[in-house]
Write a structure and sequence with these properties.
The protein is built from eight helices and eleven strands. With 313 residues, the chain is of the alpha+beta class.
């Protein structure tokens, strides 16, 4: 059986024939043991970017203000901005026929309205709820990385206790619908034109093989950033394949996972080729899995209650 993790090993090497890339791949294998040790030593490192010590440029402050102004709701505890996504019916999966069997069959899905965060959760936002930063790449406006699905559930429990709300991971269907600008037949989040991919996506050709601050590329048609490339993003659903062929309404994923309670992550990351950062791209690993190329964004049901409206934007 081909497992989701194999897909990563294969596709990460499809970057081109240059000797520089081949040397880089060899070096990654040589350094793998060192990285594992480094990861283990930094997972519980206390945060080195507390709010009081952040140095944020005037440009980034202006960017944050613009994001808040464009949001349909802003959580006062974390400053996370949300877009209201109007529900509808779309064709979920590999609508362009260029993906893997994990993305098939294409099937109709109907969703209710929901909110999803404009960006991946940043390290600044993460640390407003918890007192440690697990990230490999450090910076207050970078996506929090090196986190597991289990870590996110713990963080959400604390966030919901503090705010009295019911924030959660988006379902896979919600994530893909939002990534494709409301269920459009987009290949990448925001575009299907390969000449425009660099305008919307951090990927192998422009990322310098590292994470970048959120919302520094163009948003998609709903005003949502970085859903292709940047970081793989955990979603709620268990991971399995094939998809059900029949029409689904507000699906929350299969009852059983491929193995080891695998959970799904979507959208590719900063070190992948264009094929792997497509909006329908999906993979999965056990919920304890964490790497420097995995992050998340959050969602919540709509409509908001009167209390939530009055405490937000």
């Amino acid at each position: 059986m081909i497992h989701a993790a194999w897909q990563h090993s294969d596709t990460r090497q499809q970057r081109g024939p240059s000797s520089g890339h081949r040397i880089n791949i060899v070096c990654r294998f040589i350094l793998a043991g060192v990285l594992v040790l480094a990861t283990a030593s930094c997972v519980r490192t206390p945060c080195t970017c507390p709010e009081s010590g952040d140095t944020v440029s005037d440009e980034r402050v202006a960017d944050a203000a613009a994001l808040a102004a464009a949001a349909d709701y802003v959580d006062p505890a974390t400053s996370i901005g949300f877009v209201l996504v109007k529900g509808g019916t779309f064709q979920m999966g590999d609508v362009h026929g260029s993906g893997s069997r994990f993305e098939r069959p294409v099937h109709p899905v109907t969703l209710s309205d929901f909110y999803i965060s404009q960006t991946e959760v940043t390290q600044r936002q993460w640390n407003r709820i918890t007192n440690y930063n697990p990230s490999h790449f450090r910076g207050p406006e970078l996506p929090v990385d090196q986190i597991s699905w289990d870590d996110i559930q713990e963080w959400l429990t604390k966030l919901n206790r503090k705010t009295g709300r019911r924030y959660r991971l988006p379902t896979e269907a919600e994530w893909e619908y939002a990534a494709r600008s409301g269920g459009k037949d987009e290949i990448w989040s925001g575009t299907s034109n390969p000449d425009e991919i660099g305008d919307y996506v951090w990927y192998i050709e422009n990322s310098d093989e590292r994470s970048h601050p959120v919302a520094t590329k163009k948003p998609n048609g709903l005003g949502i950033y970085d859903m292709s490339g940047s970081q793989w993003e955990w979603v709620y659903d268990r991971f399995n394949f094939p998809f059900p062929a029949e029409h689904q309404v507000n699906p929350t994923g299969p009852a059983e996972s491929l193995k080891n309670e695998y959970r799904t992550y979507k959208g590719g990351a900063w070190d992948y080729i264009p094929k792997i950062v497509r909006a329908s791209m999906r993979s999965g690993k056990e919920p304890s899995y964490k790497r420097r190329w995995i992050s998340f964004r959050i969602a919540m049901d709509a409509p908001l209650t009167g209390t939530e409206k009055s405490s937000g934007k």
